[in-house]
Amino acid sequence: MGEVFHAIGVFFERLAAVEFLPLALAICTHILKTACTSRAWRNTIAAAYPDVEVPWRSIYGSYVSGVGVNAVMPARGGDLVRLYLAHRSVPGAAYTTLASTLAVLAIFDSVAALLIFVYALTLGVLPGLGLLPHLPGFDFAWVGRSPELSLALALALVIVAVIGAMWLRFRVHDLKERLLQGVVVLRDRGRYLRTVAVWQAADWFLRFVAIWFFLAAFGIDQSIQNVLLVQVSTSLASLVPVSPGGIGTEQAFIVFVFKDAVPRSSLLAFSVGMRLTLTAVNAIVGFTALFLMLGHVRWRDVVGPRKEGQEKPAPEG
């Protein structure tokens, strides 16, 4: 993590040179992006539960709350918060169905990320697997440097998978029905394109626009190629969400893919500055939404099991 702290130091040294108008535009664009994503999720849930009112305001709050928790916690713990809050907002909803609605969103995101990844491959800028443990600041480097620990982790994952498979054997029919209910919007191609894909397309367009403004804020050449390289670095960092917000991993990828095209100090200031800004915005918006929806931010009440008969009513609106 020494490389990460060094990068943070470089960012604060260059803070006075940051252009705050494009930075503010980047923040506004990012917030608008989350609204588009939550709208796509709300429409997916509404298709799964056609007889239930699914308020977008509550789903938006659930979505940004999860984003806010992911900003400060590793391993995407915010996804559980997102599902919990959405479950409170949709009467009669099942967690498995809500989880499968997120899988619907993952289809478009995966295709978009894959296209950008293929583009980066054509440029020959991505590191090979053998280089990953040696990238400065790469927070998953212990996988390559400690094969024994990696093997133990893999064994633990296998054990969890086996136990999960045994549990699913006894509930496979009910589980299958609930999972299929969550992806029902895919059966109507027109509805999927109009109510889900179009919002996700807007989400990705706004991602690019936000990066464009961030590049301007930190004095780095604004070009479509640079925007796509930053996005592919961010997408790759999200594949190994060990640190909050992927900080460390993202910086390692960005420094590698840009190589000598941008001075290292400028690149580190941009990368860390963008990540710290987005982390702060996500945390502020997310925890504000969490407080407004629950009246508090106590973790035990958010992720802990509720006793029978203590189900809280879904918030109005």
Question: What can you tell me about this protein's structure?
Answer:
The chain has 317 residues and is mainly α. It has one domain. The protein is 72% helix and 0% strand. The chain has 13 helices and no strands. Helix 1 crosses helix 12 and helix 2 crosses helix 3. The protein is globular and about 55 Å long. The N and C termini lie far apart (44 Å).
Largest sheet: none
Number of helices: 13
**Overall number of domains:** 1
Provide the low-confidence segments as ranges: 129-134, 137-143, 303-317
What is the typical, i.e. mean, pLDDT?
A: 78
> What gap, in angstroms, lies between the N and C termini?
44 Å
Question: Structural class of the secondary elements?
Answer: mainly alpha
Task: State the order of secondary-structure elements, H for helix, E for strand.
Answer: HHHHHHHHHHHHH
Radius of gyration: 21 Å
| Shape field | globular
Number of strands: 0
Helix content: over 70%
Strand content: under 5%
Features:
317 residues, disordered C terminus
Per-chain topology:
Elements lengths: L1 H12 L6 H29 L7 H17 L5 H12 L5 H29 L18 H4 L1 H23 L2 H11 L6 H29 L6 H15 L10 H10 L5 H31 L4 H5 L14
Helix pairs in contact: 1-12, 2-3, 2-5, 2-9, 3-4, 3-12, 5-8, 5-9, 5-10, 9-10, 10-11, 11-12
